[in-house]
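DM from R.C. (forwarded with permission)

"hey, sorry to bug you on a friday — could you get me a structure for this? deadline for the figure draft is monday and I only need the backbone to look sensible"
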Amino acid sequence: MANAYDILQARGFVEQVSDEEGLRRALEQPITCYIGYDPTASSLHVGNLLTIMALAHMQREGHRPIVIVGGGTGMIGDPSGRTEMRQLLTPEIIAANLQAIKGQIGRYVDFSEGRAIVLNNAEWLAPLNYIEFLRDIGRHFSVNRMLAAESYRQRFEAGLSFIEFNYQLLQAYDFLHLYREYGCTLQMGGNDQWGNILAGVDLIRRVEGGEAFAMTVPLLTTSSGAKMGKTAQGAIWLDAERLSPYDYYQFWINTEDADVVRFLKIYTFLPLEEIEALGRLRDAEVRRAKETLAYEATRLTHGREAADEARQASRALFRGADAGGAEDVEAAVPWTAISRAELERGLAVAEALERVGLVGSRSEARRLIRQGGAYLGEERVESEERLITAADFGDGALLLRAGKKRYHRLVAE
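My reply, with the result:
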């Protein structure tokens, strides 16, 4: 069996590790590892995929993942990477989000027959006696050391609430609880979690005299410096209700050329030899590598059928009718209904672009029109005052385009 650490390192998952050689030795035998996710929304997004894929690789190499959905810590909010306090969620919202997140992670990690576990840390955090917790756990934490951490230092300058200050203690206690109850010896997470994860490693050593490990994955940005998974239109959600499989596919196929190989290693399970071969493609052939990335990523998140439909629709739009018919576009490209009454009055193109999410604001829509990047079907929109009317619709539908690669169908009803 290959060593999981070497696989993760070769594919670009490793940013920091507390004891590289010690962890590599530990991974020569099956271990239990965990990653936590805050249930702050009803869907995870592409930014979470890096850690999810890391867990999936660990499982494929014979290790047992634990997924913690932070029903307890989610009631406080992690100050890491934040300039202001997170909105506190009610237990009811957290419970609903937790169930949705479980289902999404289950597309990547196999929870059958105990091969992986999903836990809610509210189960052990909520019953804690606060005085006993401070006595038994809080005494192991140095305020000076906590304030030296980047995440706390940034928040301290802007205003750090006492409830947020407790977050590191609770996350460290999670690791201690999992060590005691499940033999968990490795916590993974984003690099902004480094201080919190190390606190757990240290707590296990102090309280139990045990050995545990910390590993973080990089906080990815694209080659142009943009935060991975963020666009002008918002987050790239894993939930098909929030973002259609076609739009998800388009996010990946629009990957910058310089990022394709890196993202193939991280966001697909393709063998490295196959990825290296795709990385040797040049010029127009690079699109084949991008299409492979888009298809594999969409298949993992939404299933093979949705990936097939998205690929067919994309080919039909970008390569002409020979690659697929109109029915392929209709099956996958997201659409918005426009009432006949509104079409009689006339709908401004700028308003339509914003409404369907092709741009983030009305001003951005006007700028796109001025730059010649807005289209109704094959017609370039020449004026910011251009109105969409019933005359623009053929067979009851109109293809709205922003730039070369982003489409949305308007359907008259």
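R.C.: lifesaver. The longest strand covers residues 184-190.
me: no worries. The CA atoms of residues 273 and 279 lie 10 Å apart.
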